[in-house]
Design brief:
Elements lengths: L1 E4 H4 E5 L16 E4 L11 E2 L4 E3 L1 H5 L11 E5 L3 E7 L4 E2 L3 E6 L6 H10 L1 H5 L12 H5 L2 E4 L2 H40 L7 E4 H4 E5 L16 E4 L1 H5 L5 E2 L4 E3 L1 H5 L10 E5 L7 E4 L3 E3 L3 E6 L6 H10 L1 H6 L11 H5 L2 E4 L1 H39 L1
Parallel strand pairs: 3-8, 4-7, 13-18, 14-17
Antiparallel strand pairs: 1-10, 2-9, 3-5, 6-7, 6-9, 11-20, 12-19, 13-15, 16-17, 16-19
Length: 381
């Protein structure tokens, strides 16, 4: 294998931001424009668009570059280390260094997996007092040991196949959620049906959360209970969750405001971003930025409550209070109305049972794929 500087095997581009005060640079924009924020919680290899697009006028006003499909994007600041491949022509802000690979020497797939595995090593090269940033020069001079292009393709072949399976599953997962949401609409938003309207607190027990002292490592060491924060929910990407980033111990649970939430409840963000929700498949706990809804009886299911939240997110947020940041409190959430009807509930549960089971199996398979990918990356990079 031969050692190369990245500048020898790829063109490296920086991005830029059109003046944000000029609406004509953004309104009705058709040019995909990516920022590091777009990759926060992003769990796919290819990215096609970001939260905002820019206009041709906006593009011409700054130094960002239109990057070809297949370009490898690497966030170089705030934070360092997000990686994706451009799924179409797009441009980025200044938070990226992007690589257009010379395919005679460097496969974009190989570079993608290399950067994914070595992001912490590269992040350590960052400089800056306010926030760390890896400069274009640092990346250009970075040395990488490369096998032949054919060997690179053989090296990543299994990873590419796993990612393709992962994406196929994601498409099915999205379709299943849409189908289940349609069934919710069919059975609980039908003007021809007569519903009973009850308070949320009559249908579910609302459980608050808490945080064990972070100064006591015994509250966190050898944790046994998943401990959810709003970030766990907003970055989940699915309607169900298998685990949280952190766990707390039995003593952590006993010495904090955290409470046990049974499996198949709905965990919802109650502050900052209000109304994002997931169904926990395992017993869990949460911090104080969450409210958990535990169905009391068979009048409602977790899936019904999840879709009620999803379709009434703005209504829930409108009942929040607070001067510094908005928060929906337990008592206010409990007063909100939710529609129930025995026949509709039975039909919804019956028609979503197999769909939900298939959905769950796909999410679990993708979790296994992600774990397998990490093991392969450890051995090959």
């Amino acid at each position: 294998m031969k050692r190369w500087h990245l500048k020898e095997v790829a063109e490296i581009y920086s991005g830029a931001t059109p003046l944000t005060k000029n609406k004509s640079y953004y309104e009705n924009g058709s040019i995909a424009w990516i920022t590091p924020k777009d990759l926060s919680g992003f769990k796919h290899k290819y990215i096609f668009s970001g939260q905002r697009s820019i206009t041709e006028e906006g593009y011409q006003s700054c130094s960002t570059k239109l990057l070809p499909k297949g370009t490898v994007l690497f966030s170089s600041r705030a934070p360092i280390g997000y990686v994706a491949i451009a799924g179409q022509e797009l441009c980025t802000n200044q938070g990226f260094k992007s690589f257009v690979c010379n395919d005679k020497f460097l496969s974009n797939q190989y570079l993608y997996y290399y950067l994914t595995k070595n992001r912490e090593k590269i992040a350590a090269l960052g400089n800056g007092s306010t926030f760390k940033e890896v400069s274009r020069k640092t990346l250009a001079d970075y040395e990488i040991e490369l096998p032949s292009i054919d060997e690179q393709k053989r090296t990543v072949k299994e990873l590419v196949m796993l990612d393709e399976k992962y994406e196929d599953n994601c498409n099915l997962i999205a379709s299943l959620e849409l189908l289940m949401e349609h069934l919710y609409y069919k059975f609980f938003e039908d003007d021809t049906r007569k519903y009973d309207e009850i308070h949320v607190a009559d249908a579910v027990e609302i459980v608050t959360g808490g945080t064990p002292s972070t100064k006591n490592e015994m509250y966190w060491k050898n944790g046994v209970y998943d401990w959810y924060t709003p970030t766990d929910v907003t970055t989940c990407g699915n309607l169900i969750t298998l685990s949280a980033e952190k766990k707390i111990s039995v003593s952590g649970l006993e010495n904090s405001g955290a409470k046990l939430v049974p499996a198949n409840s709905v965990i919802m963000t109650s502050r900052a971003t209000i109304g994002e929700a997931v169904i926990n498949l395992n017993e869990a706990t949460t911090n104080q930025g969450m409210l958990s809804l535990v169905p009391k009886d068979n009048r409602v299911t977790a899936l019904q409550i999840y879709f009620w939240m999803k379709r009434n997110k703005k209504f829930i947020a409108a009942n929040a209070n607070g001067s510094i940041f908005k928060e929906i409190y337990k008592k206010d959430l409990g007063k909100l109305p939710v529609k129930v009807q025995e026949e509709a509930g039975d039909l919804f549960e019956k028609q979503t049972k197999k769909l939900f089971g298939f959905y769950e199996s796909l999410v679990k398979e993708n979790n296994i794929i992600s774990q397998l990918k990490m093991k392969i990356l450890e051995t090959k990079f």
